[in-house]
Design brief:
Layout (H helix, E strand, L loop, with lengths): L21 H13 L3 H8 L3 H10 L1 H27 E9 L5 E9 L2 H11 L1 H4 L11 H28 L1
Antiparallel strand pairs: 1-2
Helix pairs in contact: 1-4, 2-3, 3-4, 4-5
């Protein structure tokens, strides 16, 4: 017996999971304005994250809309991060002695630690944090160092003996 048309939850009547072309624009706006990620989009459209991934594969316009929307948010975060690192001006309202409100430009200094984190992420080959790198010597290097130390000790001993003979 086929599922009744009025029951949207019956097997074969999953109309709420079907993609609609207007979803691309909605998803792009949600990603750009609210920073939505795929799991949040799935909740918004009342589908699973797997369905969102399937829509991206089946509907190139949907995948492109997500890419554009997420890129817009990423660009905004990047600009804000750079401002936080370098410092920036803000306008603040301040009362003067007479009770009048004046707008002043106030400098917010940058954060060097945030700058180092940014550089470590963008240029890890130069700015990656080194974690207790221990230098290990090969057997040859260790033996050569030992011989150098023996030579140094021998020179010191000869110099002492020469001074004793002079006295």
């Amino acid at each position: 017996m086929p599922a009744s048309k009025g029951n949207q939850y019956a097997k074969g009547n999953r109309s709420k999971n079907k993609y609609k072309p207007e979803y691309a624009e909605t998803a792009s706006k949600l990603c750009a304005k609210s920073g939505f990620i795929d799991i949040q989009l799935a909740e918004w459209f009342e589908v699973t994250e797997k369905t969102i991934n399937n829509w991206k594969l089946a509907h190139p316009e949907f995948a492109e809309a997500l890419r554009v929307g997420k890129a817009e948010t990423d660009d905004l975060v990047e600009r804000s991060t750079v401002q936080h690192i370098c410092g920036y001006y803000v306008l603040v309202d301040e009362l003067d002695r007479k009770g009048n409100i004046r707008q002043l430009r106030k400098w917010i200094p940058g954060n060097a630690h945030a700058g180092l984190k940014w550089l470590a992420a963008r240029r890890p080959e130069v700015y990656r944090e080194q974690k207790n790198v221990k230098h290990q010597l090969s057997m040859d290097e260790a033996f050569l160092r030992f011989l150098d130390q023996m030579d140094e000790q021998a020179k010191i001993e000869r110099a002492r003996n020469a001074r004793m003979i002079e006295h």
